[in-house]
Design brief:
The strands form 2 sheets. The protein has a two-stranded antiparallel sheet with strand order 1-2. Helix content is about 50%, strand content about 5%. It is built from 12 helices and 4 strands. The protein has 2 domains: about 90 residues, Cytochrome c-like domain (Cytochrome Bc1 Complex, Chain D, domain 2); about 100 residues, Cytochrome c-like domain (Cytochrome Bc1 Complex, Chain D, domain 2), CATH 1.10.760. The chain is mostly helical.
Length: about 220
C-alpha cells in the first residue's frame, strides 16, 4: 500500500513537471522540416556516440511526444547533461521542440517499422531484479505502455544506452558527467550492482516494443 501511494505521488509530480511542455502543441509535418540536426545520429541504426561515454544513441521514433518534448527542454536548461544535445536544444524554440517531438512520436507508429508491444515474462534472477526495481509500476506491464506520458517507453531500447542511463541515475550529482538526476530512478538504480544493471538493461532491450530507429532518406 505504501509503495502504491508513493507511486501515485511520484506520478503527480512527474506530470506536473511536464505541464509546461504540454502547453505548446506540436505539428509533425512542421517537425519533419526541423530535424536536420537530429538525423545524423537518431536516423542511423546503431549509430554510436563516443563522448562523454560510449553508447548507441537511443531509439526515439515512437517515443511519447510529451517525453521527447520534456527531454529537449531539460537539455536546453542543462538539467540533462550532454554537450551535443544541449547545443542542439539551445537552438530550438519551445514550438520547435514541440514540432520535433510530434514528428518523432508519429514516425514510429508504422506497422511496417515496429512490432506491437509484447512482453516476455522475466525468469530467475532477472525476474527478481525487475520485481525489486518495480519497473512495470511506471513503465507498464510490457515496459512499452507507461502509466503516463511523462514516463518513457523502454522496451526494445538499446542495452548499452539503458546501462549508461541507469549508471548515470546511480551516480551522485557531483560525479555525473552524462544524463540527468532523478530522485525516483536514482533510488531504484542504487539498489543494484553494475552487473545487475547489465542484466536489467539486457532484458529490457530484448522486449518487443514501439521504439525504432527510422533511417531518413539520405541515410537509407
Amino acid at each position: 500500500m505504501i509503495k502504491f501511494l508513493s507511486l501515485v505521488f511520484i506520478s503527480a509530480v512527474a506530470l506536473t513537471s511536464v505541464s509546461h511542455a504540454q502547453d505548446v502543441k506540436g505539428d509533425a509535418q512542421a517537425g519533419e522540416k526541423k530535424v536536420a540536426m537530429c538525423i545524423g545520429c537518431h536516423g542511423i541504426k546503431g549509430y554510436q556516440a563516443s563522448f562523454p561515454v560510449v553508447y548507441k544513441v537511443p531509439k526515439i521514433a515512437g517515443q511519447s511526444m510529451t517525453y521527447i518534448q520534456a527531454a529537449l527542454s531539460e537539455y536546453k536548461k542543462g538539467e540533462r547533461k550532454n554537450t551535443t544535445m544541449r547545443a542542439i536544444a539551445t537552438s530550438l524554440s519551445d514550438k520547435d521542440m514541440a514540432d520535433v517531438a510530434a514528428y518523432y512520436s508519429a514516425l514510429g507508429h508504422d506497422d511496417s517499422l515496429v512490432l506491437p508491444p509484447k512482453a516476455t515474462e522475466p525468469e530467475g534472477e532477472v525476474a527478481a531484479l525487475v520485481a525489486k526495481g518495480a519497473c512495470t509500476s511506471c513503465h507498464g506491464a510490457n515496459l512499452s505502455m507507461p502509466i503516463g506520458p511523462a514516463y518513457p517507453k523502454i522496451a526494445g531500447q538499446y542495452a548499452d544506452y539503458l546501462l549508461v542511463a541507469l549508471r548515470s541515475y546511480k551516480a551522485d550529482e557531483g560525479l555525473r558527467v552524462w544524463g540527468r538526476a532523478n530522485g525516483v530512478m536514482g533510488g531504484v538504480a542504487k539498489q543494484f550492482s553494475t552487473d545487475e544493471l547489465k542484466l536489467l538493461a539486457k532484458y529490457v532491450s530484448e522486449q518487443t516494443g514501439e521504439l525504432a530507429t527510422v533511417p531518413q532518406s539520405r541515410f537509407r
